[in-house]
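> call design_seq(struct)
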Protein backbone atom coordinates (compact mmCIF):
# COMPACT_ATOMS: atom_id res chain seq x y z
CA UNK A 1 0.00 0.00 0.00
CA UNK A 2 1.44 3.32 -1.12
CA UNK A 3 0.78 6.49 0.80
CA UNK A 4 -0.87 8.70 -1.84
CA UNK A 5 -1.44 12.18 -0.47
CA UNK A 6 -3.78 14.31 -2.52
CA UNK A 7 -4.76 12.24 -5.54
CA UNK A 8 -7.69 9.83 -5.53
CA UNK A 9 -6.49 6.27 -4.92
CA UNK A 10 -7.30 2.99 -6.61
CA UNK A 11 -6.25 -0.65 -6.50
CA UNK A 12 -4.15 -1.77 -3.56
CA UNK A 13 -3.69 1.81 -2.37
CA UNK A 14 -7.36 1.95 -1.48
CA UNK A 15 -8.21 1.18 2.13
CA UNK A 16 -11.49 -0.74 2.16
CA UNK A 17 -14.43 1.15 3.63
CA UNK A 18 -16.93 -1.65 4.02
CA UNK A 19 -19.58 0.34 5.77
CA UNK A 20 -19.96 2.88 3.03
CA UNK A 21 -19.72 0.28 0.25
CA UNK A 22 -22.48 -1.79 1.83
CA UNK A 23 -24.61 1.26 2.39
CA UNK A 24 -24.31 2.34 -1.24
CA UNK A 25 -25.29 -1.13 -2.49
CA UNK A 26 -28.26 -1.31 -0.14
CA UNK A 27 -29.55 1.96 -1.54
CA UNK A 28 -28.87 0.99 -5.14
CA UNK A 29 -30.46 -2.44 -4.66
CA UNK A 30 -33.67 -0.70 -3.71
CA UNK A 31 -33.58 1.32 -6.91
CA UNK A 32 -32.55 4.67 -5.44
CA UNK A 33 -30.48 7.36 -7.08
CA UNK A 34 -27.90 8.74 -4.70
CA UNK A 35 -26.22 11.92 -3.77
CA UNK A 36 -22.98 11.44 -1.86
CA UNK A 37 -22.93 14.38 0.47
CA UNK A 38 -19.49 15.05 1.72
CA UNK A 39 -16.99 17.79 2.22
CA UNK A 40 -13.70 18.03 0.43
CA UNK A 41 -11.14 15.31 0.62
CA UNK A 42 -13.15 12.65 2.39
CA UNK A 43 -12.56 10.15 -0.39
CA UNK A 44 -15.59 10.48 -2.69
CA UNK A 45 -13.70 9.99 -5.93
CA UNK A 46 -11.69 7.08 -4.48
CA UNK A 47 -14.90 5.36 -3.38
CA UNK A 48 -16.31 5.68 -6.88
CA UNK A 49 -13.11 4.33 -8.45
CA UNK A 50 -13.36 1.42 -6.06
CA UNK A 51 -16.95 0.66 -7.08
CA UNK A 52 -16.04 0.94 -10.74
CA UNK A 53 -13.09 -1.43 -10.41
CA UNK A 54 -14.73 -3.97 -8.09
CA UNK A 55 -18.41 -4.13 -8.99
CA UNK A 56 -20.66 -6.53 -7.17
CA UNK A 57 -22.26 -9.24 -9.29
CA UNK A 58 -25.00 -7.75 -11.45
CA UNK A 59 -23.63 -4.20 -11.40
CA UNK A 60 -21.58 -2.09 -13.79
CA UNK A 61 -20.35 1.36 -12.83
CA UNK A 62 -19.39 4.15 -15.16
CA UNK A 63 -17.41 7.07 -13.74
CA UNK A 64 -17.59 10.49 -15.28
CA UNK A 65 -16.25 13.84 -14.03
CA UNK A 66 -18.25 16.77 -15.40
CA UNK A 67 -16.69 19.86 -13.80
CA UNK A 68 -15.76 21.44 -17.13
CA UNK A 69 -19.19 20.96 -18.71
CA UNK A 70 -21.28 24.13 -19.00
CA UNK A 71 -24.09 23.08 -21.29
CA UNK A 72 -27.00 20.70 -20.74
CA UNK A 73 -26.81 19.06 -24.16
CA UNK A 74 -23.06 18.66 -23.86
CA UNK A 75 -23.65 16.96 -20.52
CA UNK A 76 -25.91 14.34 -22.10
CA UNK A 77 -23.56 13.95 -25.03
CA UNK A 78 -20.78 13.10 -22.56
CA UNK A 79 -23.04 10.63 -20.79
CA UNK A 80 -23.63 8.90 -24.11
CA UNK A 81 -19.93 8.92 -24.96
CA UNK A 82 -19.12 7.23 -21.68
CA UNK A 83 -22.01 4.80 -21.82
CA UNK A 84 -21.89 3.72 -25.44
CA UNK A 85 -18.12 3.17 -25.27
CA UNK A 86 -18.33 1.04 -22.15
CA UNK A 87 -18.22 -2.72 -22.22
CA UNK A 88 -21.42 -2.92 -20.20
CA UNK A 89 -23.46 -2.11 -23.31
CA UNK A 90 -22.13 -5.17 -25.09
CA UNK A 91 -22.87 -7.22 -21.96
CA UNK A 92 -26.46 -6.05 -21.95
CA UNK A 93 -26.80 -6.49 -25.67
CA UNK A 94 -25.50 -10.05 -25.47
CA UNK A 95 -27.74 -10.86 -22.54
CA UNK A 96 -31.05 -9.89 -24.07
CA UNK A 97 -32.64 -9.27 -27.44
CA UNK A 98 -34.71 -6.50 -25.95
CA UNK A 99 -31.64 -4.55 -24.79
CA UNK A 100 -30.02 -5.17 -28.14
CA UNK A 101 -32.96 -3.57 -29.92
CA UNK A 102 -32.96 -0.59 -27.55
CA UNK A 103 -29.27 0.11 -27.96
CA UNK A 104 -29.41 -0.21 -31.74
CA UNK A 105 -32.08 2.48 -31.96
CA UNK A 106 -30.36 4.74 -29.44
CA UNK A 107 -26.90 4.42 -30.94
CA UNK A 108 -28.30 5.21 -34.32
CA UNK A 109 -29.98 8.38 -33.09
CA UNK A 110 -26.91 9.53 -31.20
CA UNK A 111 -24.74 8.99 -34.26
CA UNK A 112 -27.16 10.96 -36.38
CA UNK A 113 -26.87 14.08 -34.24
CA UNK A 114 -23.13 13.56 -33.99
CA UNK A 115 -22.86 13.88 -37.75
CA UNK A 116 -23.77 17.59 -37.64
CA UNK A 117 -20.67 18.96 -35.94
CA UNK A 118 -20.55 20.24 -32.40
CA UNK A 119 -22.30 23.61 -32.62
CA UNK A 120 -25.34 22.52 -34.62
CA UNK A 121 -25.32 19.26 -32.78
CA UNK A 122 -25.85 20.93 -29.40
CA UNK A 123 -28.39 23.51 -30.53
CA UNK A 124 -30.14 21.25 -32.98
CA UNK A 125 -33.71 22.45 -33.24
CA UNK A 126 -35.03 20.12 -35.86
CA UNK A 127 -33.36 16.90 -34.82
CA UNK A 128 -33.91 15.21 -31.50
CA UNK A 129 -31.63 16.42 -28.74
CA UNK A 130 -29.22 14.29 -26.75
CA UNK A 131 -31.39 14.87 -23.68
CA UNK A 132 -34.49 13.57 -25.51
CA UNK A 133 -32.67 10.44 -26.55
CA UNK A 134 -31.33 9.91 -23.04
CA UNK A 135 -34.85 10.16 -21.69
CA UNK A 136 -35.98 7.59 -24.24
CA UNK A 137 -33.18 5.24 -23.18
CA UNK A 138 -34.06 5.65 -19.51
CA UNK A 139 -37.69 4.86 -20.20
CA UNK A 140 -36.90 1.69 -22.11
CA UNK A 141 -33.93 0.07 -20.40
CA UNK A 142 -34.59 -2.29 -17.49
CA UNK A 143 -32.17 -3.74 -14.97
CA UNK A 144 -32.35 -7.35 -16.04
CA UNK A 145 -28.93 -9.09 -15.98
CA UNK A 146 -27.03 -5.96 -15.09
CA UNK A 147 -27.72 -2.59 -13.54
CA UNK A 148 -25.78 0.31 -14.90
CA UNK A 149 -24.79 2.98 -12.40
CA UNK A 150 -23.51 6.26 -13.79
CA UNK A 151 -21.38 8.04 -11.20
CA UNK A 152 -21.22 11.75 -11.90
CA UNK A 153 -18.40 13.47 -10.08
CA UNK A 154 -18.52 17.27 -9.73
CA UNK A 155 -22.16 17.43 -10.84
CA UNK A 156 -22.81 20.58 -8.77
CA UNK A 157 -20.04 22.37 -10.71
CA UNK A 158 -21.88 21.60 -13.94
CA UNK A 159 -25.03 23.19 -12.51
CA UNK A 160 -23.01 26.24 -11.45
CA UNK A 161 -21.35 26.48 -14.86
CA UNK A 162 -24.70 26.38 -16.65
CA UNK A 163 -26.02 28.98 -14.23
CA UNK A 164 -23.09 31.30 -14.92
CA UNK A 165 -23.16 30.83 -18.67
CA UNK A 166 -26.86 30.63 -19.47
CA UNK A 167 -28.60 32.03 -16.41
CA UNK A 168 -30.83 30.83 -13.64
CA UNK A 169 -33.66 29.51 -15.81
CA UNK A 170 -31.28 27.30 -17.75
CA UNK A 171 -29.76 25.89 -14.56
CA UNK A 172 -33.16 25.15 -13.04
CA UNK A 173 -34.29 23.56 -16.28
CA UNK A 174 -31.20 21.36 -16.31
CA UNK A 175 -31.86 20.19 -12.74
CA UNK A 176 -35.50 19.45 -13.53
CA UNK A 177 -34.59 17.64 -16.72
CA UNK A 178 -32.30 15.36 -14.75
CA UNK A 179 -35.06 14.70 -12.27
CA UNK A 180 -37.51 13.82 -15.04
CA UNK A 181 -34.98 11.46 -16.53
CA UNK A 182 -34.57 9.70 -13.18
CA UNK A 183 -38.27 9.50 -12.59
CA UNK A 184 -39.08 8.08 -15.99
CA UNK A 185 -36.49 5.36 -15.51
CA UNK A 186 -37.33 1.68 -15.90
CA UNK A 187 -34.44 0.92 -13.59
CA UNK A 188 -31.71 0.06 -16.09
CA UNK A 189 -29.61 3.10 -15.30
CA UNK A 190 -29.15 4.62 -11.86
CA UNK A 191 -27.14 7.63 -10.81
CA UNK A 192 -24.73 8.53 -8.06
CA UNK A 193 -23.95 12.22 -7.99
CA UNK A 194 -21.29 13.90 -5.96
CA UNK A 195 -19.01 16.88 -5.96
CA UNK A 196 -16.95 19.07 -3.77
CA UNK A 197 -19.54 21.84 -3.71
CA UNK A 198 -22.73 20.95 -1.87
CA UNK A 199 -25.61 20.32 -4.25
CA UNK A 200 -28.26 21.21 -1.64
CA UNK A 201 -26.73 24.67 -1.20
CA UNK A 202 -26.85 25.25 -4.95
CA UNK A 203 -30.44 24.11 -5.48
CA UNK A 204 -31.52 26.23 -2.52
CA UNK A 205 -29.87 29.25 -4.03
CA UNK A 206 -31.73 28.50 -7.26
CA UNK A 207 -34.95 28.10 -5.27
CA UNK A 208 -35.57 24.64 -6.61
CA UNK A 209 -35.01 22.19 -3.74
CA UNK A 210 -37.69 19.91 -5.20
CA UNK A 211 -35.45 19.23 -8.21
CA UNK A 212 -33.32 16.89 -6.10
CA UNK A 213 -35.76 15.71 -3.46
CA UNK A 214 -35.93 12.28 -5.08
CA UNK A 215 -32.22 11.69 -4.42
CA UNK A 216 -31.20 9.50 -1.54
CA UNK A 217 -28.50 11.24 0.42
CA UNK A 218 -25.55 9.16 1.52
CA UNK A 219 -23.09 10.54 4.03
CA UNK A 220 -19.52 9.38 4.26
CA UNK A 221 -18.49 8.75 7.84
CA UNK A 222 -14.88 8.88 9.04
CA UNK A 223 -13.05 5.61 9.67
CA UNK A 224 -13.69 3.88 12.98
CA UNK A 225 -10.78 4.02 15.46
CA UNK A 226 -10.08 0.33 14.71
CA UNK A 227 -9.95 0.96 10.96
CA UNK A 228 -7.96 4.13 11.47
CA UNK A 229 -5.40 2.16 13.42
CA UNK A 230 -5.26 -0.57 10.80
CA UNK A 231 -4.80 1.98 8.02
CA UNK A 232 -1.95 3.76 9.84
CA UNK A 233 -0.23 0.47 10.62
CA UNK A 234 -0.52 -0.69 7.02
CA UNK A 235 0.98 2.55 5.74
CA UNK A 236 3.84 2.52 8.26
CA UNK A 237 4.56 -1.16 7.66
CA UNK A 238 4.66 -0.62 3.91
CA UNK A 239 7.15 2.17 4.44
CA UNK A 240 9.12 -0.06 6.86
CA UNK A 241 8.89 2.47 9.65
CA UNK A 242 8.95 1.04 13.20
CA UNK A 243 6.54 2.44 15.79
CA UNK A 244 5.44 2.06 19.37
CA UNK A 245 1.87 0.86 19.58
CA UNK A 246 0.95 3.64 22.03
CA UNK A 247 2.16 6.21 19.48
CA UNK A 248 -0.55 5.04 17.07
CA UNK A 249 -3.26 5.52 19.68
CA UNK A 250 -1.85 8.94 20.44
CA UNK A 251 -1.84 9.82 16.73
CA UNK A 252 -5.45 8.68 16.32
CA UNK A 253 -6.45 10.90 19.19
CA UNK A 254 -4.66 13.86 17.68
CA UNK A 255 -6.13 13.36 14.19
CA UNK A 256 -9.56 12.89 15.78
CA UNK A 257 -11.54 13.17 12.52
CA UNK A 258 -10.37 9.92 10.94
CA UNK A 259 -10.69 10.66 7.25
CA UNK A 260 -8.05 8.83 5.17
CA UNK A 261 -6.59 12.08 3.90
CA UNK A 262 -5.62 13.37 7.34
CA UNK A 263 -4.17 10.00 8.21
CA UNK A 264 -2.08 10.00 5.04
CA UNK A 265 -0.85 13.49 5.68
CA UNK A 266 0.26 12.57 9.20
CA UNK A 267 1.90 9.33 8.13
CA UNK A 268 3.78 11.12 5.36
CA UNK A 269 5.29 13.38 7.99
CA UNK A 270 6.16 10.46 10.28
CA UNK A 271 7.90 8.67 7.45
CA UNK A 272 9.91 11.79 6.59
CA UNK A 273 10.95 12.21 10.22
CA UNK A 274 11.95 8.58 10.49
CA UNK A 275 13.98 8.88 7.34
CA UNK A 276 15.91 11.78 8.83
CA UNK A 277 16.39 10.58 12.40
CA UNK A 278 15.79 6.84 12.42
CA UNK A 279 13.92 7.22 15.70
CA UNK A 280 11.20 4.66 16.29
CA UNK A 281 7.85 6.50 16.15
CA UNK A 282 6.77 7.51 19.67
CA UNK A 283 4.48 10.22 21.04
CA UNK A 284 7.18 12.83 20.85
CA UNK A 285 7.75 12.16 17.15
CA UNK A 286 3.99 12.36 16.62
CA UNK A 287 3.96 15.82 18.20
CA UNK A 288 6.78 16.93 15.95
CA UNK A 289 5.02 15.58 12.88
CA UNK A 290 1.95 17.56 13.80
CA UNK A 291 3.91 20.78 14.07
CA UNK A 292 5.36 20.15 10.65
CA UNK A 293 2.05 19.38 8.96
CA UNK A 294 0.96 22.94 9.41
CA UNK A 295 4.04 24.12 7.65
CA UNK A 296 3.33 26.22 4.51
CA UNK A 297 4.45 23.49 2.20
CA UNK A 298 1.27 21.52 2.73
CA UNK A 299 -1.04 24.39 2.30
CA UNK A 300 -2.35 23.57 -1.17
CA UNK A 301 -4.24 20.75 0.53
CA UNK A 302 -5.75 22.99 3.15
CA UNK A 303 -6.29 25.87 0.78
CA UNK A 304 -9.01 23.87 -0.89
CA UNK A 305 -11.01 23.93 2.34
CA UNK A 306 -10.57 27.66 2.52
CA UNK A 307 -11.24 28.39 -1.16
CA UNK A 308 -14.24 26.15 -1.26
CA UNK A 309 -16.09 28.55 1.05
CA UNK A 310 -16.08 31.17 -1.67
CA UNK A 311 -17.90 28.81 -4.03
CA UNK A 312 -20.25 27.45 -1.43
CA UNK A 313 -21.58 30.77 -0.09
CA UNK A 314 -22.83 34.09 -1.39
CA UNK A 315 -20.42 36.98 -0.76
CA UNK A 316 -22.11 38.12 2.48
CA UNK A 317 -22.53 34.60 3.82
CA UNK A 318 -18.92 33.92 2.94
CA UNK A 319 -17.75 36.71 5.25
CA UNK A 320 -19.95 35.36 8.02
CA UNK A 321 -18.69 31.81 7.46
CA UNK A 322 -15.09 33.03 7.79
CA UNK A 323 -16.00 34.88 10.96
CA UNK A 324 -17.62 31.78 12.46
CA UNK A 325 -14.66 29.57 11.61
CA UNK A 326 -12.23 32.14 12.97
CA UNK A 327 -14.05 32.29 16.28
CA UNK A 328 -14.26 28.53 16.68
CA UNK A 329 -10.64 28.02 15.61
CA UNK A 330 -9.47 30.57 18.14
CA UNK A 331 -11.60 29.41 21.05
CA UNK A 332 -11.14 25.72 20.24
CA UNK A 333 -14.47 24.84 21.76
CA UNK A 334 -17.37 27.12 22.55
CA UNK A 335 -21.03 26.84 23.37
CA UNK A 336 -23.69 27.62 20.84
CA UNK A 337 -24.92 30.50 23.00
CA UNK A 338 -21.49 32.08 23.26
CA UNK A 339 -20.96 31.82 19.53
CA UNK A 340 -24.29 33.51 18.80
CA UNK A 341 -23.67 36.22 21.38
CA UNK A 342 -20.28 36.95 19.94
CA UNK A 343 -21.63 37.23 16.39
CA UNK A 344 -24.62 39.32 17.38
CA UNK A 345 -22.47 41.68 19.40
CA UNK A 346 -20.66 42.45 16.14
CA UNK A 347 -23.99 43.50 14.68
CA UNK A 348 -24.45 40.39 12.58
CA UNK A 349 -27.93 40.44 11.07
CA UNK A 350 -27.70 37.55 8.66
CA UNK A 351 -29.16 34.11 9.13
CA UNK A 352 -26.46 32.77 11.42
CA UNK A 353 -28.15 29.40 11.84
CA UNK A 354 -28.23 28.69 8.12
CA UNK A 355 -24.53 29.42 7.68
CA UNK A 356 -23.57 27.34 10.71
CA UNK A 357 -25.65 24.46 9.41
CA UNK A 358 -23.89 24.66 6.07
CA UNK A 359 -20.51 24.56 7.77
CA UNK A 360 -21.56 21.54 9.80
CA UNK A 361 -22.96 19.84 6.76
CA UNK A 362 -19.80 20.57 4.79
CA UNK A 363 -17.68 18.94 7.44
CA UNK A 364 -15.81 21.92 8.85
CA UNK A 365 -17.32 21.94 12.33
CA UNK A 366 -19.56 19.87 14.54
CA UNK A 367 -21.80 20.43 17.52
CA UNK A 368 -21.35 18.06 20.42
CA UNK A 369 -22.87 18.45 23.88
CA UNK A 370 -23.87 21.98 22.96
CA UNK A 371 -20.35 22.99 21.93
CA UNK A 372 -18.87 23.72 18.54
CA UNK A 373 -15.43 22.47 17.55
CA UNK A 374 -13.50 21.95 14.32
CA UNK A 375 -13.81 18.40 12.99
CA UNK A 376 -10.16 18.25 12.20
CA UNK A 377 -7.65 19.57 14.73
CA UNK A 378 -5.08 19.58 11.91
CA UNK A 379 -7.21 21.93 9.85
CA UNK A 380 -7.83 24.01 12.94
CA UNK A 381 -4.11 24.40 13.59
CA UNK A 382 -3.56 25.45 10.00
CA UNK A 383 -6.53 27.81 10.12
CA UNK A 384 -5.21 29.53 13.20
CA UNK A 385 -1.80 29.91 11.73
CA UNK A 386 -2.62 31.13 8.25
CA UNK A 387 -6.23 32.24 7.94
CA UNK A 388 -7.13 33.81 11.25
CA UNK A 389 -4.52 36.52 11.12
N1 LIG B 1 -10.21 4.55 1.01
C1 LIG B 1 -9.07 5.25 0.90
N2 LIG B 1 -7.88 4.64 1.01
C2 LIG B 1 -6.74 5.35 0.94
N3 LIG B 1 -6.70 6.66 0.71
C3 LIG B 1 -7.85 7.32 0.57
C4 LIG B 1 -9.10 6.65 0.63
N4 LIG B 1 -10.07 7.57 0.48
C5 LIG B 1 -9.46 8.74 0.30
N5 LIG B 1 -8.13 8.62 0.34
C6 LIG B 1 -7.18 9.71 0.22
O1 LIG B 1 -7.80 10.92 0.59
C7 LIG B 1 -7.48 11.97 -0.34
C8 LIG B 1 -8.75 12.47 -0.95
O2 LIG B 1 -9.36 11.43 -1.71
P1 LIG B 1 -10.34 11.72 -2.91
O3 LIG B 1 -9.69 12.59 -3.92
O4 LIG B 1 -10.91 10.43 -3.32
O5 LIG B 1 -11.44 12.57 -2.12
P2 LIG B 1 -12.58 13.50 -2.66
O6 LIG B 1 -13.61 13.50 -1.60
O7 LIG B 1 -12.98 13.10 -4.03
O8 LIG B 1 -11.85 14.91 -2.70
P3 LIG B 1 -12.25 16.25 -3.49
O9 LIG B 1 -13.34 16.89 -2.70
O10 LIG B 1 -11.00 17.07 -3.44
O11 LIG B 1 -12.67 15.86 -4.87
C9 LIG B 1 -6.49 11.38 -1.31
O12 LIG B 1 -5.21 11.70 -0.86
C10 LIG B 1 -6.70 9.91 -1.23
O13 LIG B 1 -5.50 9.26 -1.46
MG1 LIG C 1 -13.02 14.11 -5.85
Amino acid sequence: MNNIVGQPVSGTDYFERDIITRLIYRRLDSGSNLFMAAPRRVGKTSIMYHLRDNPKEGYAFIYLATESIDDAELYFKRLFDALLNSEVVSRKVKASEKSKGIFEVITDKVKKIGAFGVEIELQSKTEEKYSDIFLELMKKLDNEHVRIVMMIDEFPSTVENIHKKNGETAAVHFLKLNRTIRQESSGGIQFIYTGSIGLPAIVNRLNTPESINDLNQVEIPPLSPEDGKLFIEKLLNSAKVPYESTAIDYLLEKINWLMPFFIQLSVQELVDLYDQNKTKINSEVVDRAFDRICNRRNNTHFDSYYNRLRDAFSEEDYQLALEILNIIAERNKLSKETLFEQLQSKGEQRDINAVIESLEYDGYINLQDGHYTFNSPILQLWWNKYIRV
